[in-house]
């Protein structure tokens, strides 16, 4: 996962290939280290596939929940191309619902409109 830009209204991130639990934790750690966790984020995962289990999704929730106890978390929109990744992001969104909105999308314009409406 690579942060392309932090200059706009939200963090613009792209990921390719298999995205694992470790990849997501490393990305969140990078954002935390840069003081970016409070910012909204658009993740372009159209060239990626979720490669983590439901149990790992719950572990990610626990990790993010702990961070969210200490600082505000930004809204996250994830643009995906496949059903598996959509489902995993949707599961993360349901788990994280009380912390911050996380939502999968099939196209970037819809994701951008959603992010703009959740500021």
Task: Give the helices and strands, then pairings.
Layout: E1 2-5, E2 11-19, H1 21-33, E3 41-50, H2 54-70, E4 76-80, H3 83-96, E5 102-105, H4 108-117
Parallel strand pairs: 2-3, 3-4, 4-5
Antiparallel strand pairs: 1-2
Helix pairs in contact: 1-2, 2-3
Question: What is the fold named in CATH at topology level?
Answer: Transcription Regulator spoIIAA
Strand order, biggest sheet? 1-2-3-4-5
Count of the separate structural domains: 1
Average pLDDT number? 94
Give the overall form. Answer: globular
Helical segment tally? 4
Explain the overall architecture.
It is a single chain. With 119 residues, this protein is α/β, with parallel strands linked by helices. The protein has one domain (2-117): Transcription Regulator spoIIAA, CATH 3.30.750. It contains 4 helices and 5 strands; from the N terminus they run E-E-H-E-H-E-H-E-H. A 5-stranded mixed sheet has the order 1-2-3-4-5, with helices on both faces. It is globular, with a radius of gyration of 13 Å. It starts with a strand and ends with a helix. The model has no long low-confidence stretch (mean pLDDT 94).
């Amino acid at each position: 996962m690579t942060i392309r830009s932090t200059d706009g209204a939200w963090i613009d991130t792209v990921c390719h290939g298999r995205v694992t639990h470790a990849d997501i934790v490393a990305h969140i750690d990078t954002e935390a280290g840069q003081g970016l966790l409070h910012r909204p984020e658009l993740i372009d995962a159209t060239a990626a596939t979720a490669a983590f289990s439901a149990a790992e999704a719950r572990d990610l929730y626990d990790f993010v929940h702990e961070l969210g106890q200490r600082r505000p978390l930004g809204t996250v929109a994830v643009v995906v191309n496949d059903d598996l990744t959509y489902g995993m992001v949707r599961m993360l969104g349901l788990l994280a619902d009380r912390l911050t909105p996380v939502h999968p999308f099939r196209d970037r314009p819809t994701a951008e409109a959603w992010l703009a409406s959740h500021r």
